[in-house]
Amino acid sequence: MFINHFLYYILDNMDDKNQINILNRKSLNVKEEDIKVKEIPKKQVRTKIDQISISNPKTKKEITKSEVKEKKPITIKEIIFRITNFFVRLPTFFARFLSTSGKFIYYSILGTMVSFCFAILLFPENPGLFSVFFLTIFLAPFVIKEINLNILLVGRTKQVEHKGVTITSFKVKDNEQFSLEEFYEENRKMLSAYFFFFLGIMLVVIALIVFMPISHSSILFSQQGWSNALMPTKDIGFEGIDKWGVFFDIFKNNFSVMIVSFIVALVFPLGALLMIVWNAMYWAVAFTQYAVVYSSSYNVNLLFILLPLLLSVALHTLIEAICYFFAAMSGSTLSIGFQKEKLDSDRFFYIFKYCLILMAFAVFFLILGSVVEVFVFDFLKNFFFSFF
Prior knowledge:
By secondary structure, this protein is mainly alpha-helical. The protein has one domain (78-225, 232-385). It is built from twelve helices and four strands. Helix 5 (127-153) packs antiparallel against helix 6 (180-211) and helix 8 (243-267) runs antiparallel to helix 9 (271-298).
């Protein structure tokens, strides 16, 4: 009402030039039938019904049963397709593996050299043993970061790949089937970190033994497997020996190392890193000392014995190292789970099952490594030594 009086007052006091003509439907002679409101078409929403549940209102019990989908048997074409797809994706796998954690090898090389320098300066009587502790302390921050991140995200992430782009989605998994691809993605960074730490330590130790005099190497690595009574023979391998007996001996030895790695990591999370550092130094010392002593005893070029020997032992050494990686990851993950989760919570129960899966993989690689060492090493040795 007030607006009408206000407009009337303004229009009444306006000049003819400044008057405003207000047009309405009557002045324009427009009929109501000609005015059509344009309706916006609504989009049809399709609802997909996966299951219809019918229940009895009296008993409030569900009558219908969910439809159980039968799994179709895998055809030969699908098997061939999966195998082909696996080999096609191998270059991408190695590229991602190297790009994400390749920096760890530089940390391990630098840390190993710095650790030996400090150990020689501060503890000249027993530098090898203290170099292990210094190197463990040097690499500890990187491992602690990865362990805490892994325990936080395990079971809560899923890799989604769309048009070549990999996206990490977060969710809480509940009674989902085990996925090997997701399991690898969840532990990829931790495995690659341990692998590159292991590789960097072995490279530095091998280089030190090769370029240092034997007398200095015997003092530096006296606690890491160096044996002054070593007498290498030309017959390397297990030919002409009861291989099954050797297999069980190697299996028992490796099994004890795996259990020790798990227990040490469980009691002391950084013990996992300590065991990896120790094993890397021990194996590097054992292989390189054998080659150096063999070269000096039989007057053979060191390169012609060291290179084929390292290539021959590389396969089973890597497999056994992965076994220790999984055992150490299982122990450290369970240890952090005890500290951060309630024992009666669903989250702790999930972590406990996850650690059992890690140990199952450790046992698998333990058996595989023992088989390769006993039954495949001789073939690899004959193959690589034939080139030298």
